[in-house]
Specification:
homodimer, alpha/beta, Rossmann fold, Alpha-Beta Plaits, eleven-stranded mixed beta sheet, 14 helices
């Protein structure tokens, strides 16, 4: 039986998970793969901390280069994260002819085009199932299961921290800061939660799957990103009254000539299956022209779910090595020569429904002023709600609009906030609701 | 660019869907596969009916043997269905060295062991993603994405007809016969619905995935099967009051030495994500030791969703042919030499919670009689509900039990129905509820 030699770089939570799964489930992996997967070396700055994994002597090293330059290593598992050292290590390992398995969405979102090209030039593969949606088979489903589909849209919850916080605000009515503190205390949010709560992590993942689904280069820079820090219990309560839930969604849609790629808090119907995705769980709806709506659901992060995805990639590469089938599935879903330039639509050009919560003086005529300005921009109002309580002399006026262009919404709001009766910046939340009358 | 020659046998709905997708989405398939997939011949008894697909002259034939014996055909797509002719055709095509793509769950459930062995002996593959869950990537997820997991359980809704009927009874309060008639009128149920409503179709699929997940031979005969024909709106209403929904579930669980494989109507908590799966949609929860709970959701049947799965299999085989990677993934998830004999637990040996609805005379002492007998069999009652209305002189008495062994439940019921106060056979529905106190 052939042995594949693995080198692990980065022995943090995710790296330790991969090592543990390789060791604990070695028998099942070997019987199903038909090869031995031997964890030959693990490189980390810290090789003193006991991670509770029984490793043979000599596996741990602080010398990264000894791992990525080791001619006997077939596959390098990059589990450092971040965009600087990880990139150098990956490029050097690629140049050394190593296959790469990684969960590093930030790196792939920002430098993936260069890295995948380098891998192709050196005849190796970069496998990255763990970079999007943890153990959910997002990459495999897009690349393989939906291979005969024109993918039309993808809508998903791809960050467990945000979903945990929003679920908490929804269920307990906590304010955002309290919900964040609770998430940090329970280990669901990091000490510096910026990447998660500001939507960047979700956008990294969206950049990757948008490229795979629509046959385009990875384009993180043009994704519109808005986090969840401004969401209040009041907005969530209004959403509930209208039959919606608020989720931080990654939205990637394809129309004839354009791609939409955006990350923002979104109201979705309570009976949409994504509304049932609570806590740290993730889910992604993928809609193809043949399949219709499909959904993947599972743990999008965490030590062992992520390890499961890492191992599925390792086994995929091992199976390719065993059968000599390198390059069997194009890394970016399409071969390079079929990857098209496809611009991402500016957010101002999207058309959707909106929830707008104005704070205004409790005075006759206010509604007329607001609706008059909206009318000037051809924004048609579906319903108006004024039942909220007064606070600091202001009352909330909530409007749901029919389909409108974002640019017009913003222009209208810009005029509305200049009115004396408006007391604070309005809250704008996009609605994703196919069933809603247009 | 290499051309793969395809022969389609069976030009009904699913076969026509595969042909349509091959033709309509030829460009995307070709660009992603790196090969041309040419539909060389289609065999069917009926080649006169216009299926609305523009085929080149000479593709259609009534001569099946001309297709499966054609030395130029690489892949035979078996879309006849059923267990007799389809089996002969498949065996002959295999003997001719053709790879097989099929959606035929009945055939694989009953003769899969023989067919997969024949394929292995002839160095060809049988691909069957479309046989379970339509476009949901069930087979690929179990075989590839969860390759490093010990799968612990699978619980799913795998028959759209049953789910449509149960959703209809739940939403409209229709009786079963009315809901079935409605499903037939809307095309969601066949004229002879036996295979679906009696649970056989679900069991065919469960037999296949149980083998893949637990490394055992396909064993359809020992699966416990109970359909949905006895479910009444009253039971669904009680379920609602207790916070449950009733779904026809395929349940496949693995414990140390035993496998549970059963199909029956089941009460599940309303907040279980499977409770949100309505209409003809399917979903499957797969729980692995590393992944935890995951779920796949989508259209489990229908012309184009099934075609999408068929095409993913064709492309998988084409990619193997291009790279010479035949046998890259073991067909049954484990290589034959690792497939273990694993008996399926008799239904009498399972332990779960039960809903039992007795019909009894509205008379003092009835509850004491029933609960006394249950107590003799060590069955502990969680709650009793007697609020239903009298009909034909009887009242419903509903009991939810704590964990109990099925054998004891049946023995107790056998004694209870002999009591004069019992007026009709009781309704027994198993409850699947991990959260419920045991």
């Amino acid at each position: 039986m052939r042995t594949m030699q693995l080198g692990l770089v980065g022995f943090g939570t995710v790296g330790a998970g991969a090592a543990r799964l390789l060791i604990d489930n070695a028998a099942i992996i070997q019987s199903r793969t038909g090869a031995k997967l031997r964890l030959k070396s693990i490189a980390d700055i810290d090789i003193e901390t006991d991670r509770g994994i029984a490793l043979p002597d000599g596996v741990l090293t602080t010398d990264v280069e000894a791992v990525i330059d080791d001619p006997n290593i077939d596959i390098v598992i990059e589990m450092i994260g971040g965009e600087t050292i990880a990139k150098e290590i990956m490029l050097r390992a690629i140049a050394n002819g190593k296959h790469i398995v990684t969960a590093n969405k930030a790196l792939l979102a920002k430098h993936g085009n260069q890295l995948f090209r380098a891998a192709a030039d050196h005849g190796v593969e970069i496998a990255f199932e763990a970079s999007v949606g943890g153990c959910m088979p997002v990459i495999k489903t897009i690349r393989e299961s939906m291979v005969a589909n024109h993918i039309q849209s993808m809508v998903g919850i791809l960050n467990g921290t945000c979903n945990y916080i929003l679920s908490n605000i929804t269920d307990a009515g906590s304010a955002f800061q309290a919900a964040l503190a609770e998430a940090q205390a329970s280990g669901c949010a990091e000490a510096d939660p910026t990447l998660d709560i500001e939507g960047y992590d979700t956008a990294h993942k969206l950049a990757i799957i948008t490229a795979l689904a629509y046959g385009m280069e990875i384009n993180f820079d043009d994704i519109y990103i808005e986090g969840i820090t401004a969401i209040t219990p009041m907005d969530i309560e209004y959403a509930r009254q209208f039959g919606y839930k608020i989720k931080l969604l990654a939205i990637g849609k394809r129309s004839a000539n354009a791609v939409e790629a955006r990350v923002h808090p979104t109201m979705i119907p309570a009976d949409n299956i994504l509304s049932s995705v609570n806590g740290t769980l993730n889910a992604l709806t993928i809609t193809g022209d043949a399949t219709g709506d499909t959904l993947l659901y599972g743990h999008g992060a965490g030590m062992m779910p992520t390890a499961s995805a890492v191992l599925s990639d390792i086994v995929d590469i091992a199976r390719n090595l065993l059968t000599g089938a390198g390059g069997r599935v194009p890394m970016l879903s399409y071969p390079f020569e079929h990857i098209q330039p496809r611009p991402i639509k500016p957010i101002d050009d999207i058309t959707t429904h909106y929830y707008i919560r104005f704070s205004a003086l409790d005075r006759p005529g206010v509604l007329s002023i607001i609706s008059g300005i909206l009318g000037q921009f051809n924004i048609s109002i579906q319903s108006v709600h004024q039942k909220g309580r007064r606070s600091n002399g202001s009352v909330p006026i909530v409007m749901l609009t029919h389909q409108a262009r974002e640019k017009h919404i913003k222009q209208a709001i810009e005029q509305i906030v200049q009115q004396d009766v408006i007391t604070a910046a309005p809250m704008l939340i996009r609605i994703e609701d196919n069933q809603q009358p247009g």
